[in-house]
Design a protein that fits this description.
Bound molecules: adenosine-5'-triphosphate, magnesium ion
Radius of gyration: 22 Å
Order of helices and strands: HHEEEEHEEEHHEEHEEHEEHHHEHEEEH
Helix content: 25-40%
CATH class of one domain: Mainly Alpha
Strand order of the largest sheet: 7-6-8-9-10
Structural class: alpha+beta
Number of helices: 12
């Protein structure tokens, strides 16, 4: 690997790169190809940025900021029309070809064996044959997503939706229109394009879209500058805030405090901005309250009945090796999980996974035994 060239593409000096190698850059030798991974952001280089053994660089997918007062943020942030896309709820992957092999990188810059198998099945080979420099940024969603399982999308398994495209060794992405053109050209699914609105009417339109998506249990929207001149913003439905709260309270000791607080605060701002009636506000309050209390009670009662607090998910693989590799991948990511024996199903195997939620499990038992909070 030519360090000088790598530093140049990253936009830092070679000595700075060497300094980072001792602090935030981690090596990952498995699975192939070997790579260096930025564990945190540094010198303006996104977390999750990856340098492959052959010297090719894939920048991390940029963070998307979230306003709480939508109308004010739209005025402040955008200067022209606003393209609205659905925000899908799964996990972020960057799919690309290295040494002629397709791999899927997680947000943190690991090669995920399961996402890689899914990407190899869903992305046409022709795309990387014709464009080996491309990095497909997309969301993997569905009930067979072991990171974020959701059955609100039109798939019984797991699917890939393109939302952006980048090039190796380049910062920045193509933006909305080129992304959707590429998806169409190669028959890939893309996150739904929900319209382009003039800045002055955007708030009311987006509010209606978010309400409609919320009714379908969908997550929300990402607002994008059609010419990619300013960074995107994200905004989510109350239904998603509540379902996040419900999941997190079920495993209350395994989530950071900010996860709970930020979602509760979002609800407060949305209720004010939407100028709700007393009745609407009470309904929202009831939904938030139920999202907090019901899963908590469920967890406590389950523990009381002698059950372990676990999370059940499932994957579907073509090759049993993928499942073994994924098991190892979860372990190295610090997730404790038990894999059921594989069940043959059509031309693949279905594998149930029990994720252990140790902290909530132990804390709940201790509290039931009379320990202090
Ligand atoms: P952040 O990306 O801001 O660091 P996060 O990792 O917690 O936050 P989310 O809150 O889910 O992620 O929001 C951003 C993510 O939304 C993106 O990284 C991407 O994976 C996902 N996403 C889903 N749909 C889209 C879309 N249409 N455009 C861009 N990103 C999308
Ligand atoms: Mg997400």
């Amino acid at each position: 690997m030519n360090l000088g060239r790598v530093a140049q593409i990253l936009g830092i000096t070679e000595s700075r790169l060497q300094g980072l190698q001792e602090t935030i850059i981690r090596e990952s030798a498995w699975p192939e190809p070997r790579l260096l991974r930025f564990e945190k952001e540094a010198s303006g280089i996104e977390a999750g940025t990856v340098v492959f053994e052959n010297g090719e660089i894939v920048f991390g997918y940029p963070k998307i900021r979230r306003p709480l007062m939508l109308a004010a943020a739209i005025k402040r942030h955008f200067s022209g029309p606003i393209a609205v896309e659905e925000k899908m709820n799964g996990h972020n992957v960057r799919v690309l070809s290295v040494n002629s092999e397709v791999v899927a990188l997680t947000r943190g810059g690991f090669v995920c064996p399961y996402s890689t198998e899914v990407a190899r099945r869903l992305v046409p080979e022709e795309l990387f044959m014709r464009h080996p420099e491309l990095v497909l940024c997309g969301e993997m969603v569905g009930p067979e997503n072991p990171y974020v399982a959701k059955d609100i999308y039109p798939t019984d398994s797991i699917d890939f939706y393109l939302f952006d495209v980048a090039e190796k060794n380049c910062r920045g992405t193509f933006g909305v229109h080129r992304t959707h053109d590429l998806a169409e050209k190669f028959g890939l699914k893309a996150t739904a394009f929900l319209g382009e609105f003039h800045r002055d009417v955007a708030f009311e339109k987006i509010k209606q879209i978010v309400i409609r998506l919320g009714r379908q249990g969908r997550e929300g929207v990402v607002l994008k500058d059609p010419d990619n001149l300013v960074s995107p913003l994200k905004y989510t439905s109350s239904a998603t805030n509540c379902s996040d709260l419900a999941v997190a309270f079920g495993y209350y000791n395994d989530y950071a405090l900010d996860f709970f607080v930020s979602r509760a605060v979002r609800e407060g701002f949305q209720s004010v901005e939407w100028a709700e009636s007393e009745e609407e506000r009470r309904k929202r309050a009831q939904q938030i309250g139920e999202s907090i209390l019901m899963p908590l009670v469920e967890t406590i009662k389950r523990k009381q009945a002698g059950e372990s607090i676990v999370q059940r998910v499932r994957i579907r693989v073509k090759s049993l090796q993928t499942a073994r590799d994924f098991e190892y991948h979860l372990r190295r990511s610090g997730i404790r999980a038990l894999f059921d024996p594989p069940m043959p199903d059509d031309d693949s195997y279905l594998i149930g996974i029990t994720k252990l939620v140790m902290s909530t499990n132990d804390k709940t038992q201790a509290l039931l035994d009379g320990e202090m909070w």
